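At this stage, I put together one protein's amino acid sequence and its backbone structure tokens, which the following lines show:
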Amino acid sequence: MAIATSRPGLRAYEDSLRLAPGEIISALRETLGATLVAYLGGVQETRAVREWAEGSRSPSSEVIKRLRTSYYVMAMLRDRESPSTVASWFQGLNPELDDVAPARVLRERDLDDAGPAVLSAARSFIAHG
């Protein structure tokens, strides 16, 4: 359980920067499942996710950026919600994202726009449920 701070999400942000890619991917896989992590990472096989987590294969730097952002959002939500709720949130249609699933936004849109939009939607979910 993360330490509560006066700035929600600060610990998640710091961890998203400090953790090694394998640790980021393992945590995402534990909460979201390998299939959703593969989707976020733009690969078809969950084997790639396992290999990324083990360190026997490396994702591109762009994929690592997307997965770090995904981790930040996931860890922020996980502080307050169950893993199944967090996974559902990533996959569900989100009214704050024009009824597009956060995972799809993170995968398909430019990360400079997608990251802040998804983070804002996650903060709203935390604040308002």
About this structure: Confidence is low (pLDDT under 50) at residues 1-5. The chain has eight helices and no strands.
